Amino acid sequence: GKLDLEDITIPSNILGIDSYAFNSCHSLKTIKFEEGCDWIGENAFENCSELIDVYLPSTLTMLQKRCFANCPKLVNIIYAGTVEDWEKISIFSNVLEGFEICIRDFIDEY
Which long-range contacts (CB under 8 A, 24 or more apart) does 55-59 make? Predict the structure, then answer.
């Protein structure tokens, strides 16, 4: 079941992640989104206690509330787009509080 997942790649034909889709998936460590995903729903990855790395696509336009809440090990959120693209994303208040965001413009590898 979903509780056994460690690393997942969200394929390009998935346009969004529903609310609570991976909530409390305690074994999940890495999420990589292929280009195409547009939004991440409320509480989608909340309580993923082992989550460390998230790779977001440049196609992202919305992060809904608490989508990464209570993920104490999450240290890297890497975004594939530009700083200008990042600033256009609709981000609900406090969604990314306490996280470091790495914009692809400033890193060598995605």
Answer: 55/30, 55/31, 55/80, 55/110, 56/80, 57/33, 57/81, 58/82, 58/85, 58/104, 59/35
- The whole-angstrom separation of Cα 93 and Cα 13 is 28
Query: Which run of H or E residues covers position 86?
Result: helix 83-88
Reported pTM: 0.88
- Give 36's DSSP letter: T
Burial of 99: CB neighbours in 10 Å, binned 0-12, 13-18, 19+: middle
Tracing tokens 């809440």 back to the chain, one arrives at 69
Between CA 65 and CA 81 the distance in angstroms is 21
Residue 81 has φ and ψ, to the nearest 5°, of -90, -165
Residues 31-84: tens digit of each pLDDT? 999 999 999 999 999 999 999 999 999 999 999 999 999 999 998 899 999 999
